[in-house]
Each structure stands twice: as C-alpha cells, then as structure tokens.
C-alpha cells in the first residue's frame, strides 16, 4: 500500500470519526440499540421457558382420582390452574377472552369408569393460536394424562394379585432412553438468541453501512469525501467503515461472552471460533451494505434495501425452519445471507463441537462476500463526484 493511500485512509478515518461524534444518531444506532437488544432479550429469556401458564379445570367427577390428577397437573412446570369452572361453556368463554390458554374437562363417573375398565375420556382444549404456550401446555397435560392412566393400570393389576416385578413390564413393555442433543433443557433462549442477536447485529451493520455512505450523497458532501481520500475509492470506503467494523465487532464479541459465559449456553469448542465468525459476519454484512448503496446511491433506497435484506436474513438463517426442507430456490437464496453461514458455524462449533475443518467452507463463504464492493467502486465514485442522484 503506497504512502498516498495510507494518508488518504487516515484522512478519511479522521473525517468519519468527527462526523460520528457530531450527531447522536451514530451513537444510538451502534451502541444504544445493540445494548438494548442484549438487555431485553437476555432478560426476556432468562428463565429459558415460559412457566406456570394459566389453565382451567372443569372437574365434573370430583372424585379422589380426579382431584389427584388436578394436583399432579398443577405440580408440572408449565401449567398453573387459575380457574375451576363448572361447565364446558364457561371454560370455552374464558379461553376466548384470553384468560386461560387451555382447560381440561373431567367428565362424570370418570373414576368409576376407570376402575371398571370402561376407558373414560379425559378431554383437554388448547388455544394453539399461541404456539409456544400451546405446545408446552399440551406436553405437560399429555404427560400427566399418560401418568394417570399408568397409575390406574397399576392399581387394577395389583388388585388382581399380579406380582409387582411384572407390573412394569405389562404397563410399559418397551422402555425409552431419550437423549436430547444440543439443547437438552429445551431452552428457548438457546434455540432463538443464537440467531436473533447475530441477526440484529447483521441488520444494524447493514443499516450503518448504507446510512453513512448514503448521507454523503444526500448532504452533497460526497465529492468532498472522495477528494479527502485522494480520489481512492478503496481508501474512502475502508476509512469510512473501519470505525463501524471495530464497534460492531466489539459488540458482537460482547454478545458471545454474554451468551456462552454469562448465560452458559452450549459451547463445545473454542469461543475463539465464534469470535472469528462474528468478525466475518460484521465485515461480510458491510460488504453487502456497500452493494445496496452502490446499486442505488440514494440514502432512502439504500437503507430500505439493507433493512429488508437484514430482516429476511433471520428467516433464511435456517434456525426456525431447516434449510434442507426448503424448495431448491430458497436453499440457493439462503447462501446469499451472511447470517446463514454464521448459523452453520454456530451449529458445527458451539452445539456439536466437531472438527474445525468441517466449518471452513462457511468461513470461506463469508470471506467471499468481501469481493462484492469492488463491483460498485466505479459507480460509487462517479455518483460521489457527479452528484447527479436525488437527495432523498
């Protein structure tokens, strides 16, 4: 790198630092928003799962067996009985008002029918419009219903004089040995935050790449910006974006420390690989941001496209729905998002702890994004000098 390029880079860097401290929006869009995201999401998911969600009980039998079932259900982690209702109609109305997520209806003669092997029905209704709440409550009610059924079978078999050692084999001839890999606690924080927080980081990097460049065109200072860099577009861009690279890399590393050291989310390899992935996520997102503002050197359009791309990135990361099950077109599109490759690294390194060479392709993909700005260098430079784009 020649002395002229180094000087141009330093001039641009100093100029950008002065612009950053002159307007609060730069501080808010970097430190404040990401700090808020960390505090909000880590606090929100502190418990890992929503607990003690309100449900209702319609116990028309009121026998010792039905009361025991109700006590056992209330002892589960997710369900909290807040209403004891007198009829199906009353329970349905409470669910429609949103006062309860579910209700269980125990019909008359439930205990008598169970003892005499008449197979009584235990009915429960769940509002699945609330997907997470509905699925968690359904799991607890189903488990407790099965446990009650097993308990009744045990009593009947004991009454028939069957030996205790044979009862378990009759009730459950096949024993299950379940191992949940990666997230055995079913912690929704582990499931979501390792994508939401990097996704928010990618979004803010995209916006704070398009905005500082686009505002030069809007304020008609773009010519001064390029001249200050001695007409070197490479020096102009690197000098302008370096402060944001440092800030967002620092914030991303802080996020990794919070997730893996403070929240103790699964980390089965060196945290250094996640630091490297975070740095590459930042610079690859900046490269994409340069493309958007380069294609349309208008502040409003560039920021809009960057925002849309950043929002879609969380969808195409592959955490909420597996990429392998998407249509071929969607699978190809997912490769265009840096957050998708970051998520692959997270799964391989943090969750599975496999050898690093399996993740090298994801690191290479993220590095490949750095080629993109070179395609719009001339367009950015011409637009900066001619200033012939609308100041939106």
UniProtKB/TrEMBL annotation:
Predominant cellular place of this UniProt entry's protein: membrane
GO MF annotations, alphabetized: ABC-type transporter activity
Domain ABC-2 type transporter transmembrane residues, every copy: 27-374
Signal sequence coordinates: none
InterPro entries: ABC-2_transporter_component, ABC2_TM
GO cellular component: plasma membrane
Annotated transmembrane regions: 25-45, 191-215, 241-259, 271-295, 302-321, 356-377
Classification of source organism: Bacteria, Pseudomonadati, Bacteroidota, Bacteroidia, Bacteroidales
Membrane topology of the entry: Multi-pass membrane protein
Name the UniProt record assigns to this protein: ABC-2 type transporter
Organism the protein comes from: Paludibacter propionicigenes (strain DSM 17365 / JCM 13257 / WB4)
Keyword Kinase: no
């Amino acid at each position: 790198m020649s002395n002229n390029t180094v000087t141009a880079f330093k001039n641009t860097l100093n100029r950008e630092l002065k612009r950053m401290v002159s307007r609060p929006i730069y501080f808010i869009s970097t430190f404040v928003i990401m700090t808020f995201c960390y505090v909000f999401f880590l606090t929100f998911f502190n418990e890992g799962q929503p607990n003690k969600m309100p449900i209702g009980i319609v116990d028309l039998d009121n026998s010792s067996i039905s009361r025991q079932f109700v006590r056992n259900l209330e002892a589960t982690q997710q369900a909290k009985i807040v209403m004891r209702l007198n009829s199906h109609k009353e329970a349905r109305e409470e669910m429609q008002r949103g006062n309860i997520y579910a209700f269980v209806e125990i019909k008359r003669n439930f205990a008598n029918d169970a003892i005499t092997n008449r197979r009584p029905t235990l009915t429960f209704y769940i509002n699945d419009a609330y997907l997470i709440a509905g699925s968690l409550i359904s799991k607890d009610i189903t488990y407790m219903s099965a446990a009650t059924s097993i308990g009744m079978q045990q009593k009947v078999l004991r009454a028939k004089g069957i030996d205790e050692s044979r009862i378990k084999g009759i009730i459950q001839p096949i024993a299950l040995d379940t191992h949940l890999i990666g997230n055995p606690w079913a912690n929704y924080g582990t499931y979501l935050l390792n994508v939401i927080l990097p996704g928010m980081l990618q979004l803010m990097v995209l916006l704070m790449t398009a905005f500082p460049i686009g505002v030069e065109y809007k304020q008609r200072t773009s010519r001064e910006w390029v001249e200050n860099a001695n007409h070197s577009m490479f020096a102009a861009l690197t000098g302008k974006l370096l402060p944001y690279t440092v800030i967002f890399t620092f914030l991303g590393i802080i996020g990794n420390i919070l997730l893996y050291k403070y929240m103790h989310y699964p980390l089965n390899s060196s945290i250094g690989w996640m630091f490297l992935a975070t740095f590459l996520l930042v610079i690859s997102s900046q490269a994409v941001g340069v493309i958007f503002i380069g294609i349309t050197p208008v502040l409003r359009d560039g920021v809009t496209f960057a925002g849309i791309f950043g929002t879609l990135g969380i969808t195409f990361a592959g955490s909420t729905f597996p990429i392998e099950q998407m249509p071929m077109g969607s699978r190809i599109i997912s490769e265009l998002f840096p957050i998708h490759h970051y998520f692959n690294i997270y799964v391989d390194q943090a969750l599975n702890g496999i050898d690093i060479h399996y993740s090298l392709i994801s690191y290479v993909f993220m590095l490949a994004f750095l080629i993109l700005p070179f395609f719009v260098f001339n367009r950015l430079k011409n637009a900066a000098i001619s200033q012939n784009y609308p100041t939106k």
